[in-house]
Q: What sequence folds into this?
């Protein structure tokens, strides 16, 4: 596949049937895609369990699933019942990864409006998940979101080859700005990427190069041993949405190729 194979999230902002989206992803030149792990309802219903094989039938690799993060802040709760509920959900999703031969599960440690201070309850929750992941051979990727301290906190407390992190560039530049602490100090545990751009105000999910992120600086801090996918989690602007999904994906492939070129030269 070459150095730094390229991927894009299976939902890239256009209302199309799942099969059509992954076909367009393939035709645009991407190698892999990621799946949001929920059924798609209207107007083209499809069960999540059928998505991995459809992706593979299209000639793409299923890089990972991104699991729902509703109430994920309860992983840190003092209330055992709340923690247990979230742990059970994530254990179920880990089982799904193993069943469908998906190597990585991307998850959030908090959700909008609930960002607990890192604590030992969260460590206990994650320990249970990591132990299950080790038995199943599935890697957990915890994604940096609104708090800048919880991913390092968990990585410091739990040493496992089945626990790493997903670097979300847009989230990072809304919390840490120009501080590359996560990449510099935990780069050896980078297992997934969500690449997109923003204006420094909101999580816009713009294509790289359309916002304030300095991609030259990002690539300078990227871990040299990273051999995973450069994956976009980007959606079209209102103006781009008036154009075709084919043109958006062509532009997306060009933009992430530029990031790959910067990494190769770094």
A:
């Amino acid at each position: 596949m070459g150095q730094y194979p390229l991927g894009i999230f299976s939902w890239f902002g256009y209302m199309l049937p799942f099969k059509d989206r992954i076909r367009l992803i393939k035709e645009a030149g991407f190698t892999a895609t990621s799946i949001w792990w929920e059924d798609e309802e209207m107007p083209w219903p499809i069960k999540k369990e059928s998505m991995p094989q459809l992706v593979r039938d299209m000639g793409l690799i299923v890089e990972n699933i991104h699991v729902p993060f509703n109430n994920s802040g309860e992983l840190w709760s003092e209330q055992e019942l709340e923690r247990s509920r979230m742990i059970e959900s994530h254990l179920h999703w880990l089982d799904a990864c193993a069943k469908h031969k998906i190597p990585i599960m991307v998850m959030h440690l908090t959700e909008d409006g609930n960002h607990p201070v890192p604590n030992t309850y969260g460590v206990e929750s994650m320990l249970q998940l990591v132990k299950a992941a080790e038995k199943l051979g599935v890697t957990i990727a915890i994604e940096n979101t609104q708090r800048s301290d919880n991913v390092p906190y968990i990585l410091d407390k739990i040493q496992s080859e089945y626990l790493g992190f997903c670097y979300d560039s847009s989230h990072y530049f809304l919390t840490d700005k120009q501080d590359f602490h996560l990449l510099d100090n935990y780069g050896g545990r980078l297992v997934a990427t969500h690449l997109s751009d923003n204006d420094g105000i909101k999580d816009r999910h713009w294509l790289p190069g359309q916002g304030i992120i300095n991609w030259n600086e990002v690539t300078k801090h990227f871990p040299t041993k990273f051999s995973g996918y450069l994956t976009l989690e980007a959606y079209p602007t209102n103006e781009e949405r008036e154009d075709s999904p084919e043109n958006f994906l062509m532009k997306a492939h060009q933009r992430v190729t530029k990031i790959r070129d910067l990494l190769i030269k770094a």
In short: The longest strand covers residues 61-66. The chain has a mean pLDDT of 96. The chain is about 40% helix and 15% strand.
